[in-house]
Amino acid sequence: MVKYIAEPFRIKSVEPLKMLTVEERKEKIKEAKYNLFGLKSEDVYIDLLTDSGTNAMSSQQWAGVMVGDESYAGASSYRHVIENAQEIFGYKYIQPVHQGRAAEKVLLPLLLHEGMFAISNMHFDTTRAHVEQTGARAIDCVVKEALDTTGYFDFKGNMDNVRLVKLIEEHGAKNIGVIIMTITNNSAGGQPVSVANIRETAAIAKKYGITFMIDAARYAENAFFVKQREPEFKNASIQDIIHEVFALADVFTMSSKKDAIVNMGGLIGVKENCELFEKVNGRCITLEGFVTYGGMSGRDLEALAIGLKEGINEDFLRYRIGQMQYLAGRLDEAGIAYQSPVGGHAVFVDAAKFLPHIPYYEFPAQALAVELYIEAGIRCCDIGSYMLGNDPDTKEQLKADFEFTRLAVPRRVYTQAHLDVIADALCAIKDRAPTIKGYKIVKEPPVLRHFTAELAPLE
What we know:
With about 450 residues, the chain is of the alpha/beta class. It is about 40% helix and about 15% strand. The protein folds into two domains: about 20-50 and about 315-455, Aspartate Aminotransferase, domain 1; about 60-310, Type I PLP-dependent aspartate aminotransferase-like (Major domain) (Aspartate Aminotransferase, domain 2, 3-Layer(aba) Sandwich). Strands 2-8-7-6-5-3-4 form a seven-stranded mixed sheet, with helices on both faces. The longest helix is centred in the last third of the chain and has 21 residues, at about 315-335. It is globular.
């Protein structure tokens, strides 16, 4: 049995939880049109919908909230963010924004337009949406090892660089607006990317004159995996690995709501292109607010400045990833398949293997997510065909490479006992898996449908 790594902190404040009955939960999910995003938070016992902005801040961060500078321009809290981000990432230009999708909204239209392409190891949902809203098209280019969820590979998040070159030559380098490296690779199961792979991708981008961008939402977790699995870096510090990685890119976007352990915040980094950064500033002013607050309050900026440092602490990262390894170990004992080896922020249960009788167009990952709520009040989400949506040109349902039910664990929030409740619930559902039905969509928006779509169970 996998050993649980004890928390490197003590608990100072608590929030009460309530468990509804099974019958109450059945009614609540029906009222929510079988969309987990439609549930009220007070009707959820363990919330694994996302690890974005759901983290528990430290006493130092809460102290920072109290001294946050709320000045509209030139606030000291803004300077603290810039100084810490410049130190951690090694970039000259940093622009705060209110979250990761805001960073994409500001930056991507400066790199993409109608008829162009963005190539990524895998685009996450909001990144894909922002690419498509520029008129460009998103292409995923993850290594083939990622597609075998039960097979071991150290860096399943890697870019398939052989295919990357073929895609560039097929579409023409002038039509590739950006190459995006997502670390860790969320859509592939929170899987890490090696520094060797990032170097190779960066060299290809440089050869063809294409902007190389890092989606840095979980950059610290990625650095920890690199230290554990890439021999070159076994004696390197987390900070040294981060410098090595970011020196290879031209720009980055970041949802700070993940590895910076805050409830709100994001960053755009530009390594040295002053002209591009001036354009980022201009778009930030019109879309987010003045450049020295970027859509954030001073108290949130102060918490972010502190969280950037706390998020790269190695003791914290060992515990953080250890939680995923513990939960994955419980699933191994039960014979439940997931993207293995487990990633950094979540356990991605392979719903296609868990519910093999449900085809992709009846959304097995969503069906399993609904069952987890009914079974134990656990809220999680689909990372599969339901989330992927329809082809932007033909409007036909796309088939995702994976049908994952993602159990995203917030940082510093849940204990070993909570993880045991999750594992026990999956075991109970496994016993009745053949009786579970798929779902159909009865109402959906054209973009990012999984947030607000309405579903109904199939008879």
